């Protein structure tokens, strides 16, 4: 990164305390610069983060996580295992941006966190949790500053200035002259226009533009397929999609490749199960597009073939266009679709969490953890907030078995079996994994986008 000062515009600028969680890419980009994850996730694999190593007893009930040497917060106070205990306690009370409680308290029910020394966190669990390091990869340790904002971390950049929701300036610890200025612009059109007018060096989250723009050769374009899944919940509890055959049929009725081309301009990858190709345990083939077989399967059910499709206007991006694509595909195979468009996105999320989904509800699934997707959204044992009535006894037994595998290679194989079951007996309409897109001025080097959609910087030497 040659430039000493860079101006970056993204959708949001904020630093949230431990009890507030989000999957927003712009906020996570800032977290990844200023804070460190306890463990690091890279395309389904876990490597050291703030914890440089960990070990577990053979029964998988006791884990020891060891902090890296000389870990310091930006205020020059030591980072200790007790800081992490306090942080994890707050995480267990966390809610998202819609005020909905996250699942960490359930994961950690009856789990005991203990600082056995200043550098060692011990975790005792009532049953084996093989995915514990992956769960920890979602947690970025932070402290509150004097203003009560969570801006103090142990990461490679420190916060020089912060106006919540507006702006922040970050400085590299290794080369303090390297300054990054982030400004918030909600509308993607405004972000792109700032780049066009040379007011910023980088414009982020341009995949939110509708329609997606041609990639102007005047800029350098960064793009990476996201592990986020654009999907639609199916009402597995009542109505047409309480039948497995109907859930198979709807997945045959929608041409995912055409959706990726027409809605995303080729900037997306067709989905084929509940997680992306970058999730732990993924090894699956594409699902077939077969509208004739879909029509036959629907007809064999002898059910009322009128359904309600509910959709927000964003989250996922291009939501209404995607829903119209689904509606047209279903009309082609003999399904009448009543389309309901809900403008209030927070209320829509609460309705879906309350199981008010009609027959089909467009949504997205953001966790990069296979464990989280299965336990929060699929399992009928845990019945998490996003569970929509799906029940498969074979899968339930397989999820429990996979969850408790301590061996990573064996656990990956067991999760692959779960994902195979979810191909043959789908709980959702699988759609796409969209690309995250940024653009920079020419000559801006050292940046990339990872599969979580976060802007990444090369390490400053």
From TrEMBL:
TM region positions: none
GO terms of biological process kind: peptide transport
Subcellular localization, as worded in the UniProt entry: Periplasm
Taxonomy, superkingdom: Bacteria
Gene3D superfamilies: Dipeptide-binding Protein, Domain 1, Dipeptide-binding Protein, Domain 3, Periplasmic binding protein-like II
Alphabetized UniProt keyword annotations: Signal, Transport
Solute-binding protein family domain boundaries: 46-350
SUPFAM superfamilies per record: Periplasmic binding protein-like II (SSF53850)
One CC-aspect GO term: outer membrane-bounded periplasmic space
InterPro entries in the record: Peptide/Ni-bd (IPR030678), SBP_5 (IPR039424), SBP_5_dom (IPR000914)
Matching Pfam families: SBP_bac_5 (PF00496)
Molecular function as annotated in GO: peptide transmembrane transporter activity
Family as reported in the entry's similarity comment: Belongs to the bacterial solute-binding protein 5 family.
Name of the protein this chain belongs to: Solute-binding protein family 5 domain-containing protein
Species in which this protein is naturally found: Acetobacter syzygii
